[in-house]
Design brief:
The radius of gyration is 17 Å and the shape is globular. It starts with a strand and ends with a helix. The longest helix is centred in the C-terminal third of the chain and has 17 residues. The chain is built from 9 helices and 8 strands. 48% of the residues lie in helices and 17% in strands.
Amino acid sequence: MKKPVIAVDGFSSTGKSSISKIIAEKLGIVHLDTGALYRGITWFALQNCLNDDQTINLKQLFSSFSLIELEFKNDNGELVLFLNHINISKEIRSNEVSNNVSLIAKQKEVRDFLLQSQRNLAEKGGIIMDGRDIGTIVLPNADFKFFLTASIDERTKRRYQELLSLGLEADEIQVRENLIERDRIDSEREIAPLKKADDAIVIDNTMLTKKETIESILSYLKK
């Protein structure tokens, strides 16, 4: 019996990745954090494709795709992102990457580069994939689709705490502004904008704990 394909979309800092990871463990399926892939490409661009004014040279990035090898490796049950065989799982959470990832993610060339690899991973089933266009573009035929949302105040608090827990410097006001700007860019971009799939189940977890959000999703999966 083929295991389910589950798509989880939603706004930044709604817990998509950490929640999807726990659900994957409970169901015995694979979790893929697609946002990490876009962050990985952003990290590569920041290291290798900068203009003199320190902005990202998109043309140079697009011509460098053949030099980019992104892969997830299992590290004690956790899928960790490697770029050209180097673990970059901590680096991709930096403010510098956060400030540039929406620019990278809205590029058609980047999305096309990653699209087929994401679909290939889902072909055999038994996967939960989270991102911003999974239910609408990447896996439109997923068995289950969820869309997570929460208030900007709650998401700011979560993101700020996450950065501190990673030992990264953070300013709460800057975190809030970054989230608002990312919401705007993600929702307004021409290519694969962040939006709820028509058949997705919406879960507002502003007032829910992570455990309660997971239980809510599992209740739908068990129906």
